[in-house]
Design brief:
465 residues, 14 helices
Length: 465
Amino acid sequence: MERQVETIHLYHTNDIHSHFDSWPKINRHLHSRREQHNVDEEACFIFDVGDHVDRSHPFTEGTSGKGNVALLNKAGYDAVTIGNNEGITMSKRSLNTLYEGADFDVVLCNLYDMDKSVPKWLKPYLIYETAAGIRIGVIGATAMYTDFYAKLGWHIGEPRQAVKQLTEQIRHKTDVIVILSHLGVHEDRLLAEECEQIDVILGAHTHHLFIEGEMVNDTLLAATGKFGEYVGHVKIKFAVDHKAVVEKKAEVVHVRELASAEEDIQEVNDLIQAGKDAMEEKVFYNPSHLKQQLFADSPLSSFFGRALIDYTEADCAMFNAGIFLGSLEKGWVTKRMVHALLPHPINPCTITLDGAELLEVYKLAGNESWPETEIKGLGFRGTFMGKMIFERLFRKSDGELYAGNRKVVPGKTFTLATLDMFTFGFFFPVLKEAEKEYHMPELIRDVFTWYGMKSVSRNTMNETE
């Protein structure tokens, strides 16, 4: 007697980061595949594994991420989990309302309100049932940025343990278990080693790409890289009579292999324009041209340095000139202009340092190779590091380093305002473990705007009316 085998198709994307150039192709592809599977009477599910939202894109910023949700709705997604870009670059209120118009489920097992209650817009797991009665358990998890989530009013739990506990909880009432993991490839491999009940892990966060998947024990890992360059497809064959997975394979399709349509470019341009239109609000009047320079101090860097000091009340400030993606002309400044200037989802941070540590940071910042170093990730959306800029941190003629009017000496405490990307240990190891305060949900462009409104508009409003 021939056994009955059902085929289940999982399509997945991850780390789109609001790169919409290929989105019209992806949308058509997903609709086409679902329609074909419906004709073939095969189960089909579509998932996104986080960081679909990225506030560096004007459409995302202008719509507060709700435009991304509308795109996911239109493409017919069944469920998503969140990445750190949804989780920690948006205010708590924005995240709480982000999915109000979603036609899909949000699956996430390790995010809670501070009282440990589960937010109403998410489910720790869901069980989907195919027409043939096959039960597919889907669990979502996201990376544990404890300090950032706490600052925003969230409690983030340890994800791997949470996934293992839920897997044990639901394994007797499911036939297949799929994890939407915005944890990174290292965590995914550990999870597969530690939890043999998991059938498939759809990965994200570290932008890894598995052309044909990767097997860890009996768990299939799949991932599509970043920026919508690929769409993933996992095919599972399930023996209904034996209630067992008999085969699982992963593949990806590059978007260049998908057919284009004449209207694609216009559709993408319309998204950009919609975002820009939504950000045309005037925020302050700029009385003089603020020029950008990548490899030197500039009027623009001086303005931002004063803004950081004023906002954080730190003794001194440090940041890189590469954060500015242009200059700021004299005249009225809109939200759109500030966003174009500083698109990075980066928060300001105040760090408390001993004088010896501050001296070490200052010395490291003088690395001659850094200005021309290309930076990828860490929230940075520019290209080159540029010169390291200091505000109120300088050497006097006597050769000693001063923070404001105070000599920087070991044994004394100083506060340094900087960018959160410098606290992760890649450039300044000492900053990773230092006492710090992240200023959230404000991004560096919010500080820039705040300072412009406070220091410029008040003095010039009457002149320009």
